[in-house]
Amino acid sequence: MNKAQLVVISGPSGAGKGTVCKQLLQEMKNLKLSISATTREPRIGEVDGVNYHFTSKYDFEKQIPADSFFEYAKVYDNYYGTPKQYVIEEIEKGNNVLLEIDIQGALQVKDKYPEGVFIFILPPSMKELKNRIVGRGTETKEAIEKRFNSALKEISYVKQYDYCVVNDEVNEAVASIKSIIIAEQCKVKQDIKNIILKFKEELSC
């Protein structure tokens, strides 16, 4: 009776979304990763249908007016988007689908699929967030400050999500998200018609 979910996860850079999502996928066998479509060329080692659905600019643009994407954006002359078909097909199979995406994309998805579960990953503190960004050791001081200030603005969007999870310890954050998914699937509103139908059928036997 429990309905599968589209689980959308966002959060500021440095909050640990990628690590949390990777572990979540390892621990939940009925959780599938939503694979984005893009018009950029594959990089060395990338596989079509695994890393991205690689497509031409012509085909991508043809799908936009057909409303084939939950969200899409153009970045540096290349399109990126979340195809609806894969998500819907997996949900109909009974699989939950995980979408790790930026905040702007998540809000587009929420407009088109409000029944999704929207989870915002927060760092334990802004000090820890900055430590994580600095700890990567891959960016200049100016880039770090820009990313940190951007994170401050992004956190203000947390109120537009259904849940927030503080990623202080990865295992605990993953456990919290698993509990959220289970609780959402048990909500009466998710499957009220089937629940009532099931009990009516039992009574008529």
What tags apply to this protein structure?
single chain, 205 residues, alpha/beta, Rossmann fold, 5-stranded parallel beta sheet, 8 helices
Walkthrough of the structure:
The chain is of the alpha/beta class. The chain has a domain at 6-34 and 95-204: 3-Layer(aba) Sandwich (Rossmann fold). 46% of the residues lie in helices and 20% in strands. The protein has eight helices and nine strands. It has helices spanning 17-27, 57-63, 84-92, 103-112, 126-135, 141-155, 170-185, 188-204, and strands spanning 6-10, 31-33, 37-38, 53-54, 69-75, 78-83, 96-100, 117-122, 163-166. The strands form two sheets. A five-stranded parallel beta sheet has the order 2-7-1-8-9, with helices on both faces. It has a four-stranded mixed beta sheet with strand order 4-3-6-5. β5 and β6 (78-83) form a beta hairpin. It is globular. The mean pLDDT is 88.
Quick summary of this structure?
By secondary structure, the protein is α/β, with parallel strands linked by helices. Helix content is 46%, strand content 20%.
Task: Describe the SSE topology.
Layout: E1 6-10, H1 17-27, E2 31-33, E3 37-38, E4 53-54, H2 57-63, E5 69-75, E6 78-83, H3 84-92, E7 96-100, H4 103-112, E8 117-122, H5 126-135, H6 141-155, E9 163-166, H7 170-185, H8 188-204
Parallel strand pairs: 1-7, 1-8, 2-7, 3-4, 8-9
Antiparallel strand pairs: 3-6, 5-6
